[in-house]
Write a sequence for this structure.
């Protein structure tokens, strides 16, 4: 927990536990040198809070320990965020501890939780339906937080203070049953001690130790499994900030090989990372996502905090729903001259690419380009000036039926067949005559408009910029 020469800030309320913490640290400092400071938080909830602060201040003066007093608006935070005073107090308390640790240059923050607190927390989580991690109770070390008294029961702490005749304050709210933890402390644990098993607090803490070891092992397995089946795309990074997850993709086949317990842990971790603050993701949400892996088609569900889960072919995607972007407009009418227009006309497609348009008479044995960046169309089959735009309802392509004829296929169905992600389908420029798509740029052209042995004039459309795609028609151009 502590190394020689480190700085430590201890949270001291004035109660028995925190006063014991202060004196244990002072004793330990005689063996291992480190610098110690105390922070006292006035939550603004009790009339005697001022006298508690003065008590701790005097203790620190007598022991020559730097003292920090901070006030917290617990009622204000509880009202703003609809939290209990207990939860709001805990949030503000740790915020203040970290602020003071930064001021003091401390690597560690010491708090006074004991074995009883751990048992109470374990039961509290159990009654609320916690997983293994919650049943571990309070950890002895978490990041910079240390809990030196976690191995001691409350009766041992009180006996230590009595033997050394060390005074402490008594918080009158500790005797009330307003808080859930107090009811567990005053009623459930004493009843279990008398009616179920003597030494129940110690038994619970030993069980928590075993569960902590189990949790460590399961977390190792979960992270290994996650590396094997989850890929992540990070959000755009702002200066000085780390990129957060924008979308997770879970490989269905690899995910299916995992034990169901690990599958649920992987999904729970992903959802917690997407949820703001990691709050309120339940086992029910995990089960809802897990069910997607077994469903037919490409189902989608919406979860709290704007999280979306969607099965798409061989993956399930988890993402935060993005606000609708302002609609980009694209409407370029391609002029069709009566004869030739060998000098190209250029159109900005608004995605970093430019379309270069030219019209010319085909020459005998002239080779048709066979790549995604340049396409030829039979100009005489085009009756109206085609338009560069984004897809719209009713769009279709004409495709070969394999028997010398053609069939019409909706653009939507074609995009699904080509596994084009749903969020990308509205961003791909199309060249269309009415609803008949000549070219879904980067993919394929319509069979109807292809050049052949009877073609006289060619409409050539060449994309300048990134034009890599996944066209599915023949790549090798013919010659006419």
């Amino acid at each position: 927990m502590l190394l020689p020469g480190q700085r430590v800030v201890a949270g001291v309320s004035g109660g028995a536990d925190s006063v014991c913490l202060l004196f244990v640290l002072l004793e330990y400092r005689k063996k291992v040198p480190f610098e110690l400071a105390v922070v006292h938080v006035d939550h603004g909830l009790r009339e005697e809070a001022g006298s508690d602060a003065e008590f701790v201040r005097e203790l620190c003066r007598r022991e020559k320990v730097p003292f920090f007093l901070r006030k917290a608006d617990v009622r204000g935070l509880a009202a703003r965020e609809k939290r209990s005073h207990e939860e709001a107090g805990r949030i503000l308390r740790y915020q203040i501890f970290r602020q003071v640790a930064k001021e003091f240059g401390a690597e560690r923050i010491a708090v006074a939780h004991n074995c009883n607190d751990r048992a109470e927390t374990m039961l509290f989580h159990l009654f609320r339906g916690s997983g293994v991690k919650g049943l571990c109770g309070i950890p002895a070390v978490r990041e910079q937080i240390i809990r030196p008294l976690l191995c001691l029961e409350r009766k041992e702490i009180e006996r230590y203070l009595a033997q050394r005749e060390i005074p402490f304050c008594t918080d009158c709210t500790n005797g009330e049953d307003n808080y859930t933890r107090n009811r567990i402390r005053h009623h459930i644990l004493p009843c279990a001690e008398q009616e179920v098993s003597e030494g129940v607090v110690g038994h619970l803490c030993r069980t928590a130790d075993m569960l902590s070891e189990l949790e460590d092992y399961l977390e190792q397995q979960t992270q290994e499994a996650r590396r094997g089946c989850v890929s992540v795309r990070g959000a755009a990074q702002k200066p000085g900030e780390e990129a957060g997850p924008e979308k997770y993709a879970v490989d269905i086949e690899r995910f299916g090989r995992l034990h169901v317990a690990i599958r649920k842990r992987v999904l729970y971790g992903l959802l917690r990372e997407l949820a703001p603050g990691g709050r309120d993701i339940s086992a029910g949400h995990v089960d809802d996502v897990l069910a997607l892996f077994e469903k037919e088609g490409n189902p989608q569900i919406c979860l709290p905090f704007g999280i979306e889960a969607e099965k798409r072919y061989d993956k399930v995607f988890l993402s935060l729903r993005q606000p609708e972007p302002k609609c980009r407009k694209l409407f370029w009418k391609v002029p069709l001259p009566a004869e030739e227009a060998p000098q190209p006309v250029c159109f900005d497609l608004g995605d970093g690419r430019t379309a270069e348009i030219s019209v010319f008479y085909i020459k005998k044995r002239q080779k048709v380009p066979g790549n995604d960046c340049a396409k030829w169309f039979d100009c005489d089959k085009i009756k109206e000036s085609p338009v560069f735009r984004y897809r719209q309802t009713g769009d279709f392509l004409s495709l070969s039926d394999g028997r010398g004829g053609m069939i019409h296929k909706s653009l939507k169905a074609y995009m699904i067949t080509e596994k084009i992600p749903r969020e990308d389908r509205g961003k791909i420029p199309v060249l269309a005559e009415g609803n008949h798509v000549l070219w879904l740029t980067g993919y394929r052209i319509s069979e109807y408009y292809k050049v052949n042995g009877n073609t006289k004039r060619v409409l050539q459309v060449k994309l300048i910029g990134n034009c890599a795609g996944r066209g599915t028609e023949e790549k090798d151009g013919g010659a006419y």
In short: Residues 200-229 form the longest helix (30 residues). Confidence is low (pLDDT under 50) at residues 235-243, 473-477. Residues 332-464 form one domain. The CA atoms of residues 80 and 333 lie 54 Å apart.
